[in-house]
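Worked example 2:
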Amino acid sequence: MTRAEAETLRRLIPHLDRLAAQLDGLHPQADEQGAEFRALQAMFHDVCRVLSPEQKQRLLHQWQGELQEPLWMQESKPPYTPDELEDDAANDVLAAAVQFLEHDLLHAQD
């Protein structure tokens, strides 16, 4: 994976975070935003299709290292700040991407 490809994937995470939060009802969702979210999902899947298994493995290890403990598992109590909620949503998106890559790599070995 080139540095440019890695940076592109890295830049997707905040957008997916924002869109996922909108889908979860944290912000009003317009049909346009739902379409944008689906387009970003499709782009992520397209990028994953062109990555080699080694590139996927490196990306998986990098993203696993960036995962944080979800808010609900932490000792802090609500109410959470908007920044905490945003970080938690970003972590959820990252966790979903990690699960997708794990699943993809597992089935590539079959």
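Residues 3-109 form one domain. Helices lie at 3-23, 31-50, 53-66, 82-109.
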